[in-house]
Structure formats: structure tokens, C-alpha cells
Amino acid sequence: MLEKSITKHDEIITVLKDLYTSFNKVQIKAYLPLEQTILKVIAKAENHDDAAAWSNKLVMYLQSQIVLKQIPITKEQDTLINSLSEQCKNTNLNYVYLSPVDDSLQFD
């Protein structure tokens, strides 16, 4: 069971890094806050914080920013966000949402 948990944790980190790279390789000003937030979640995951919970929260944040600010994303980015969402869909989020979903300060 522990090995499965470690593997899932590593898979989430891999998707997070791929997602960061996908935003970072295109220099669009609107991407900068998204990139910074993804980096915060990567740091939390690498410090053995709950990667699934933070990633699930990140998905909600990214989706809200993309819709509210009409940020264009590629099919690759959409696929990575959906993959991350799928990997974290059974996460208990009762204790995580203490800030508005579209506030990047929730990741500090």
C-alpha cells in the first residue's frame, strides 16, 4: 500500500512538472501567475505535503483562472490539467478550502 502511495505521489509530481513546462515554454504574460502557483504546489509535493490534495486544489484554481480571465490554453495543457484532476479525484478536500478558489494566496 505504501509503495502504491509513493508511486501515485511521484506520478502527480511528474504531471505537475510537465504542466509547469507546458506553461513556461510559451511566453504569455497571463501564464506567469499560473506558473508561479504550479511551482508552489511542486515545492509542497516535493516536501512530502499532500500532493493529491494540493494538486486537486491547483486544478480548481487553474480552471477558475482560465475561465474568468479567458486565458488561452493548448490541448496539451488541457490534457495535463484533466490528467491531474483524474489522479486526484478521490481526495478529501474538507480541510483544504480556506480561501476563495481563484486566490493564489491559498498556496502560500
- The overall average pLDDT, rounded, is 88
CATH class categorisation: Mainly Alpha
Large-scale geometry: globular
User: How far is the first residue's CA from the last residue's CA?
Assistant: 30 Å
CATH fold call:
de novo design (two linked rop proteins)
Number of strands: 0
Which stretches are low in confidence, meaning pLDDT under 50 for 5 or more residues running?
none
User: How many individual helices?
Assistant: 4
Radius of gyration: 13 Å
Major sheet details: none
Question: Structural class from helices and strands?
Answer: mainly alpha
Give a brief description.
The chain has 108 residues and is an all-alpha fold. 65% of the residues lie in helices and 0% in strands. The radius of gyration is 13 Å and the shape is globular.
What this model shows, in words?
The chain is mostly helical and 108 residues long. It has a single domain, classed as de novo design (two linked rop proteins), CATH 1.20.1440.140. It is 65% helix and 0% strand. It has 4 helices and no strands. α1 (2-24) packs antiparallel against α2 (31-46), α2 (31-46) runs antiparallel to α3 (51-68) and α3 (51-68) runs antiparallel to α4 (75-87). It starts with a helix and ends in a 21-residue tail after the last helix. The model has no long low-confidence stretch (mean pLDDT 88).
Descriptive labels:
globular; de novo design (two linked rop proteins); mainly alpha; single chain; 108 residues; 0% strand
Topology (elements, then pairings):
Blueprint lengths: L1 H23 L6 H16 L4 H18 L6 H13 L21
